[in-house]
Amino acid sequence: MKFIVTQADLSKALVKVISVVPAKTTLPVLGNILITAKEGFLNLTATDLDVSITTKISVDVKEPGGITVPSKQFNELIKNLPNIPLEISSDAQFKLLVKCDKGDYRLSGETDDDYPALPVVDEKGKLKIDAKVLSRMIGKTSFSVSSDPLRPALTGVLFQVMGSELRLVATDGHRLAKMTYTKFESNIKDALNVIVPTKALSEVAKENKDVTSINFGQNHIRFDMGDTQVYSRILEETYPDYERVIPSNNDKQMTAETHMLADAFKRVSIFANPITHQVRMGMSKKDLTITAEDMDGGNKGTEKLKVQFEGDDIQIGYNAHLLMSALNNIDTSEVHMHFKGPTSAGIITPSHQVENEHQMMLVMPVRLND
Fold first, then answer.
1. How far apart are alpha carbons 117 and 17 in whole angstroms?
2. CA separation for the pair 85, 310 (Å, rounded)
3. pLDDT grade, residue 210 (50/70/90)?
4. What is the rounded CA–CA span in Å between residue 164 and residue 247?
5. What is the mean pLDDT of residues 280-298?
6. What is the strand order of the sheet 103-108 is part of?
7. Most exposed among 6, 100, 103, 345, judged by the fewest C-beta atoms under 10 Å?
């Protein structure tokens, strides 16, 4: 194998795949990156067996071939070189040679025959969506994913294709985020539900230039993003019936300035119990009172805010961290919060929705002490 490439192009391609390489693995070859040069392109591939990424760049291929090399050392070398042409080759002893004006470098690699093959995605259906929209949907749902390994279904984001709707849903049992979008191309006729691990989605969310094609398979999903493809194992779990916990009769609505409300929660929550992070929201037609108190430490914080409130006076307790994470994902200057009672889930939405999109978040209340 032998090819000529610029440092900038190679470094940019390495950044796209390097994050998938596992920090620790019992299979040493997974610590390597697969490098393949053929037909005018250099392909870089990395995998941890659950998530795989492959990307290609145009290079001057002198001799086709392939090799795997330690990802960390190779990436450190390339990113610390100036943007100059590099001549990269491999020999029969699986040594990778990098030559440039700055010097000659040799790195011990391994045969590409031992590197795991990319998953085969037997397509059950396919859809195309604006890459920026998909990135936005991932960002505004994945923060609600659970980190509890005992609830594996909740450690991924649910993708639902239901006719003209694409839904992304995430929940950890205490909060829920749901994004719906209706402008995409699809050949999927029957309702489709798959749970995708967040590691793969964080890689997909980085690519937001053009159109992303999502290919749904029996066991894997593939995201095609131009010259880069992300493969992920699908979580073979049953997602809970999340719609059952979304209240439809919250008859009290509060409208407030988003940043003003988030900042108030941030200040008052300093005085909350460090374990429960509980804050009390007292709402009336005059104002909103936010209170947090740590009985053990004798600390207390209170703020009053002018808000618009429709409904009977009510007091509800919430985990301040869950409220703030939801408010941080509202892009509009004002936010709507919908309530029914102190034991019912609160609904949070932007004051107006983006065209073809609907965003909704749910936060479960906590029981007040009195």
1. 15
2. 66
3. confident
4. 23
5. 91
6. 60-63, 2-6, 85-90, 95-100, 103-108
7. 103
Nearest to 230 by CA among 134, 110, 137, 359: 134
Report the chain's mean pLDDT, rounded to a whole number.
94
Tokens representing 153 are: 């279904």
Q: Which two tokens stand for residue 364?
A: 């479960």
pLDDT digits (tens, 9 = 90+) for 308-344: 999 999 999 999 999 999 999 999 999 999 999 999 9
Quote the tokens at residue 124. Answer: 């059950």
In the chain, what percentage of residues exceed pLDDT 90?
Answer: 89
Please choose, from the candidates 39, 100, 98, 55, the residue with its C-alpha nearest in 3D space to the C-alpha of residue 73: 98
Indicate if the pLDDT at residue 242 is higher than 80. Answer: yes
- The stretch 268-295 carries a mean pLDDT of 93
| Separation of alpha carbons 351 and 337, rounded Å | 9
- The reported pLDDT for the residue numbered 25 is 86
3-state per-residue secondary structure call for the chain: CEEEEEHHHHHHHHHHHHCCCCCCCCCHHHHEEEEEEECCEEEEEEECCCEEEEEEEECEEEECEEEEEEHHHHHHHHHCCCCCEEEEEECCCCEEEEEECCEEEEEECECHHHCCCCCCCCCCEEEEEEHHHHHHHHHCCHHHCCCCCCCHHHHEEEEEEECCEEEEEEECCCEEEEEEECCCEECCCCCEEEEEEHHHHHHHHHCCCCEEEEEECCCEEEEEECCEEEEEECECCCCCCHHHHCCCCCCEEEEEEHHHHHHHHHHHHHHCCCCCCEEEEEECCCCEEEEEEECCCCEEEEEEECCEEECCCEEEEEEHHHHHHHHCCCCCCEEEEEECCCCCCEEEEECCCCCCEEEEEEECCECCCC
- The pLDDT, as a whole number, for residue 17 is 96
